[in-house]
Amino acid sequence: TTKAMKKSILPAIGIGYLYIIFGNIVSNFLAQILSGAFDIPQGEAINQQVIIAALRSDGVILMMIAAVLIGPIVEELIFRKAIFGLITKDSVALIVSSAIFGAIHLIGETSIESAIVNGIPYFIMGFVFGYIYLKNDRNIWIPIIVHVLSNLISIIGILIFY
């Protein structure tokens, strides 16, 4: 029934978002370590800078739609549904989808070192979304909703604090 589905989906979304928070803590810690190891300042990824600039422009509404709805839906369908459908071994699919998810967000990086440092959060977020997908019996709606929620909260934070 719909009521039973809502009961099971809402806790899954809440737990999924807690995984995102944990992933952010871990990724910030690892990025700091790698930043020190490569002796490069930890900065914002080019992808993040582009999003912030777009949110400050006349295209703010389009960026919000792209970042909060279109991006998460398309990314989850490609990086979770499609890749996990193509690769039968879950652990391999999880690593491959996380690596590609991370790499696609690093297109504009200017050096390998900055791509590695700035890629850690994206790789870990890809891993977390994949983990959420697997933990919820491959129900694609859970990582989509968690991804939408995560991006929405990030966009709101950027609009308020930048």
Overall spatial form: globular
As a percent range, the share of helical residues equals over 70%
Count every helix, treating DSSP H or I runs of 4 or more residues as helices. 6
Distance between the termini: 43 Å
Rg of Cα set:
16 Å
The number of strands is 0
Based on secondary structure, the structural category is: mainly alpha
Low-confidence stretches: none
In short:
This protein has 162 residues and is an all-alpha fold. It has helices at 2-38, 46-55, 60-86, 90-104, 112-135, 141-161.
Explain what this protein looks like in three dimensions.
By secondary structure, the chain is mainly α. It is built from six helices and no strands. The radius of gyration is 16 Å and the shape is globular. The termini are far apart. The mean pLDDT is 93.
Chain-wise SSE layout:
Layout: H1 2-38, H2 46-55, H3 60-86, H4 90-104, H5 112-135, H6 141-161
Helix pairs in contact: 1-5, 1-6, 3-4, 3-6, 4-5, 5-6
For this entry, give a set of tags.
mainly alpha, 162 residues
